[in-house]
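Still learning. Show one?

>
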Amino acid sequence: MELEIKMLTPLWTGGVESGKMDRVHETGIIGSLRWWYEAIVRGLGGRVCDPTKHSCVYDLESSKDGLCDACQLFGATGWRRRFRLVVDGSGLRDTWSGGQINIKPPGRNHGWYLNAGKMGTLKLKIIAEPETQSFVLALLKFIEKWGNLGARPQLGYGLFSIVKVNELPQSTYSWNTLTGGENNHNFPDLRTFTFFALNFEPQSDDWWQTVPGIDRVIREHYHHNKVSDLLHYHTIPTTPALRNVLRYGVSWSSGSLPHQFFGTLHGEKRSRSKIVLSWAYQLPDSTTWRIRGWAYPPHVRQSQQQEVGQRLQAVLGKPDTWLRALKVRYRTAEVTFASSDTFFQSLSSIQVQDFVNKTLPSEAEI
């Protein structure tokens, strides 16, 4: 099975040299596939080993051969991954030439550093038994709708659209609830995810020039050309402006709470952001642009989770607050939420099953 993928926002999989992506690294794609698969499996009630240790060891005398539900597909000690991934990045190009863009919204001394990444088309070949191919296709269809490929999702990278699927597997796959899992809120669990999207039609084609942070960048001729080049790919890095408003534009009851939710890096101590906001990208053959993302609750007290949810709802709950933060004048705008209409509303495994099955390939595709 071979998939042709069009990047909607830049793909980033890292490289040998820090800050540069020399090519598409298979490990970066596999890592994001596994991250999303683990979140789905937990949401369906299944068992996933600690991703910081991956402690599963293949053992014929143990239940499920000693493997958690995720390791059965992605492999573990003594057990090979059930599929081989071949990556063809020849259809990708650097998003811009040169180094990083530093976007500093008002009030920020450091801002956010964005690497070029790659845009264009990517081909993925899945070599496996037909049943496993259909399994991986179902996973990719879910990620296409709600997630991302590669690293740096918190900075808006890795959104994509599946353009074509060749040599489709004859069998189909549907998600089912699982057993044996534990409610470990330290790790991403689809039962607590909230997905959201903003669609907007700006009043003018140059709406992006007034976005906080970007307006400062385009005053520098060197970087102005980089941002202008993004219009060729129909995408604009709006993520820093929105993250700036959410993190610094509201009052928090605890100084540590934003670090626990938005992520932090201090020396060797690193925590991943619990919220993702994509770049804005233009829908095909349309004047409408879209920004989407997801969030899941930080591992803090219930009252603090509620506080985070309320802050997010205040900014992301209405299109006007989104676009006011971006300083965009618009004709029409709409915000949608899934799989619940409020942040961090816990779902059952049955509800998660219904939600993920809505993204399965249609009969026409099979």
